[in-house]
Amino acid sequence: MKLGRVEVRRLADLLAERLRLVAVDLTPLRIECAWPVFKATAIGCAPMFVKVTEPTAAGRALSFLSSAVERPFLPRPVLPEPLDFDGRAVLCLEWKEAERVNAEDMTDGQLGSFLKGCISLADALAAYRGPVAPLAEADSPRGEYSELSCYALRHRLAGRLLGPLLSIPEEERTYGDRKLVTIHGDLQPKNYGFDGDRFAAVFDTDDLTEGLACEDAAYAFTERARRLELSEEKRRRITELFRRMVELSPWPVDEWRIALSHARLRIAARRLANHPDSAFIAFDIRRRDAPLRRLAEILH
Questions:
Q1: Are the beta carbons of 182 and 208 closer than 8 angstroms?
Q2: Are residues 14 and 58 in the same domain?
Q3: Which among 48, 180, 251, 266 could bridge 214 via Cys, Cβ 3.0 to 4.6 Å?
C-alpha cells in the first residue's frame, strides 16, 4: 500500500504531536516493502525509522523489541505503543545506520559477523515469550510439500518440471519432534545491514513465527541463491560462503537440511500462490530451484 502526499503530511503531524516536536519530516525509503516506511527527522532529535503496518504485526514487533535484552543490532522503540492511523498502526523505532549487503557480496569479515549476529538474534528470540504469528500447517515444510504435490497431480507437465522439489527426502519435509523456537522468518538483505564488517541492524520483526534456530541464517542465503540474475562467479561465491557458515555454526547439519528444504518449498509455494495455474510457472520454479540445489548438495 502507498500513502498519498496529504496522508504523509497528516502522519508527520501526528508524530510531531505525540513526540512533542515542532515538526517532523518524513522521507520515504526506497526499499521493497508491502507497507510504507520512512526516515523521520526533526530538529533536536535523532533520526527515527517509521513504518505503517497492521496493528497485530506492530504489536508483535514492539512486544519483542521492548522485552529483548539489548543487542546493538536491534532498534529500541521510540514510542512504547503503536500509534493509530486510520485503523493502521505506526511503529516508531530508533534509526539504525546500516548498509545493505547481499549474501553473495559479504566479505569474510562480514560473514563471521553475520553468523555471530544470527546466533545472538536466535538467542534473543528463543528467550521471547510474547505473541508470534502461529505456524499454520499449510506453512510447514509438510504442508508446502503437499501443496506442490497436489499441483503436480493436476498438471502432469508441471509435475515433471517440479521433480527435484518433489524428490526432497521425507525426513526433510517435516520438523518431526525437533524443538521449534521463535524466528525472524524473513531475514533477507533488505532486513539486515552492516556498518563495515560489523553486523549492525536487523529490521522488520513484525512477522515473527516458529521454526528451527538456523532458519533465519539459511533463508538469507537461499533467498539470494534463487536470483536468476546472479553471475556464475557470484553463484560460486554464495555457495562457498554458505559452506563456511554451516561449518562454523553451532547448529547441526540435519537442521540445516530441513531449513534449506523448507526455504526451497516456501519459495516455490509462494510463487504458485501468486500466479495462475500454469506449467510456465512450474518451469520458472525449476529454473530458480536449480541454484538452491547447489546449496543443498553442500549438506549431503
A1: yes
A2: yes
A3: 251
In the beta sheet, which residues pair with residue 26?
40
Q: Which residue has the cell 541454484?
A: 291
For residue range 48-96, list pLDDT tens digits in order. Answer: 999 999 999 999 999 999 999 899 999 999 999 999 999 999 999 999 9
**CB neighbours of 246 closer than 8 A, spacing ≥ 6?**
253, 256, 298, 299
* Residue with more model confidence, 135 or 33: 135
CATH number of the domain bearing residue 62: 3.30.200.20
Same structural domain for residues 187 and 281? yes
115 and 53, same structural domain? Answer: no
pLDDT at 44: 87
Which contacts of 267-272 are long-range, i.e. CB under 8 A and separated by 24 or more positions?
A: 267/222, 267/223, 267/226, 267/292, 268/144, 268/148, 268/162, 268/165, 269/144, 269/147, 269/148, 272/147, 272/148, 272/151
Retrieve residue 14's grid coordinates. 501526528
Residue 274 is predicted with a pLDDT of 82
Domain stop point among 44, 63, 94: 94
Whether residue 216 is found in the same domain as residue 107? yes
Q: How far apart are the first and last CA of the chain?
A: 42
Cα-Cα-Cα-Cα dihedral sign, residues 242, 244, 250, 256 = positive
Is the same domain home to 72 and 171?
Answer: no
Q: What CATH number is associated with residue 179?
A: 3.90.1200.10
Residues 90, 108, single domain; the answer is: no
Predicted TM-score (pTM) of the model is 0.93
Count of structural domains within the chain? 2
Which residue segment(s) compose the domain that 194 sits in?
A: 103-298
Q: How many CB atoms neighbour CB 164 within 10 A?
A: 15
Cβ of 54: how many Cβ atoms within 10 Å? Answer: 16
pLDDT band for position 242 (50/70/90)? very high
Residue pair 77/51 in contact by the 8 Å Cβ criterion: no
